[in-house]
């Protein structure tokens, strides 16, 4: 049975005051004894502040990307080793905003995945097709290509992390893939992983793209949807908690 995960991607949002208030509102035992893992991907600069209180609550932290190199003349970049040193356990890889706005190719994402392995960070590999690719009937081929690029370099080592299927047209748009459509893609992804190894086939596959308390239960009821990568709704701790509770009620066997 794949591990169940609910993860929050804060993107470029947050501050010291926001972080303190956020964790305070999750105190009080709401996260104790959960059947799923809870992850947060805040801006990296907030990691040192969040590290101890998050770990007290049982939340694992991650960064939103890492540079392929361990150090060097790369102004503005963050090495995987630095992220781990600051308290990150995970890193997102290949989020669609990194691919679209910052030009990360499948090959770049694979090199970043190698850096994550080198630093001992768990990879959360984001994959997903654009609207044009879906309309052309290329969704399966695009997502398979994104997976294969990383699997070629990392092989079974990817199994220490997770996959987040995030159709680009559903991110931040209010449009969610229907549970059936998401399930079909998750099952396709599971097949790609299974062709490589049984260990990879056991990886958690999260859905992302406008996940909210209102749609989480239906998504989590699908067989191959093992969790969610939540953007906008994760900025509201009450909404994020409601999504976690939907996983507790509908997602766990
Ligand atoms: P969203 O973002 O929930 O705001 O659509 C998801 C993501 O980009 O990870």
Describe this structure in words.
Helices cover 45% and strands 15% of the residues. The protein is an alpha/beta fold and 253 residues long. The chain has one domain (5-250): Alpha-Beta Barrel (TIM Barrel). The chain has an 8-stranded parallel beta barrel with strand order 1-2-3-4-5-6-7-8, surrounded by 6 helices. Helix 1 packs parallel to helix 2, helix 5 runs parallel beside helix 7 and helix 7 (139-154) runs parallel beside helix 8 (179-196). The longest helix is centred in the last third of the chain and has 18 residues, at 179-196. 44% of the residues are buried. The model has no long low-confidence stretch (mean pLDDT 96). Bound molecules: 2-phosphoglycolic acid. 2-phosphoglycolic acid binds next to strand 8.
Which cofactors or ions or other ligands sit in this model?
2-phosphoglycolic acid
Q: Which CATH class?
A: Alpha Beta
Helix fraction bin: 40-55%
CATH architecture: Alpha-Beta Barrel
The SSE order reads EHEHEHEHHEHHEHHEHEH
Give the mean pLDDT: 96
Q: What is the radius of gyration computed over CA atoms, rounded to a whole number of angstroms?
A: 17 Å
Number of domains: 1
Distinctive features:
single chain, 253 residues, alpha/beta, TIM Barrel, eight-stranded parallel beta barrel, 8 strands, 15% strand, globular, binds 2-phosphoglycolic acid
Summarize the structure.
With 253 residues, the protein is of the alpha/beta class. Helix content is 45%, strand content 15%.
């Amino acid at each position: 049975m794949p591990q169940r995960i609910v993860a929050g991607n804060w993107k470029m949002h947050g501050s010291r005051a926001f972080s303190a208030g956020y964790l305070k509102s999750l105190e009080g035992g709401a996260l104790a004894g959960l059947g799923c893992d809870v992850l947060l991907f805040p801006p990296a600069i907030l990691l040192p502040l969040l590290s101890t209180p998050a770990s007290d609550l049982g939340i694992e932290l991650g960064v939103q990307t890492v540079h392929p190199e361990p150090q060097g003349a790369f102004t503005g970049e963050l090495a995987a080793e630095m992220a781990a040193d600051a308290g990150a356990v995970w890193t997102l890889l290949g989020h669609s905003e990194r691919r679209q706005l910052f030009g990360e190719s499948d090959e770049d994402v694979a090199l970043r995945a190698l850096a994550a392995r080198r630093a001992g960070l768990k990879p959360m590999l984001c994959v997903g097709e654009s609207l044009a690719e879906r309309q052309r009937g290329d969704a399966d081929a695009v997502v398979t290509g994104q997976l294969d690029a990383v699997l070629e370099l990392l092989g079974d080592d990817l199994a220490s992390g997770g996959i987040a299927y995030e159709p680009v047209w559903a991110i931040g748009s209010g449009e969610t893939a229907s549970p059936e459509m998401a399930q079909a893609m998750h099952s396709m992804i599971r097949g790609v992983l299974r062709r490589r190894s049984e260990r990879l086939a056991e990886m958690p596959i999260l859905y992302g793209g406008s996940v909210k308390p209102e749609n989480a239960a239906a998504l989590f009821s699908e067989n191959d949807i093992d969790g969610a990568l939540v953007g906008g709704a994760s900025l509201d701790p009450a909404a994020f908690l409601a999504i976690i509770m939907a996983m507790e009620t509908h997602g766990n066997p």
